[in-house]
What we know:
heterodimer; A: elongated; B: 0% strand
Amino acid sequence: MTISHFGAVLLFSLFTSVVFGITMRSEPKMMIRFGAFCFALFVGGTIAASWLMWLIKH
Amino acid sequence: MTTNVQAQARAAQKTTTLPPALILIAGWLIPGAGHLLLKKWIRGALLFVSIVAMFGIGLVLKGKVYAPNTAELLDMLNFVGDLGTGLLYFIARAFDLGQAAVQIAIADYGTKFIVVAGLLNIIAAVDAHSLATGRKAS
Lengths: 58, 138
């Protein structure tokens, strides 16, 4: 199986965010909000770090 | 120090008569099983799917499953992380899965997927234990 680097980021972020959302909050609504927040941070943080590395290289 | 009032409040919040230690061990052995024993069906199913999928993707990406070792510190820590997946780890070891040498970046991602699946499973098992003892509200 081959997978793109960004695909791996999306899968990792999705599954990790689901577990974080369920375990770190008590109410279902807050679980969804926190999970979405974690997912956005994972993906956004990776994109930001990628652009930072690109800028350092160039 | 726990007062009587706190102890009574915790007892009132308990959601099961099963021993919390059993919930913890079940949650470790089978991802999401602790929540299922507490009748948290959706949470248990989501945890099971997420952790098993991460472990499975890690294996498919040819990630490494660590054996008990006394080599480098990181190898020992990776073994502890892998062990967190419970029965999945023992099944993988029994069938010699994840034993190929890691040679490409994607395979290294696979190794990380497996380790993180184990760590997430430990978090999930502890969460189920907290629900069983009443430390976590619901």
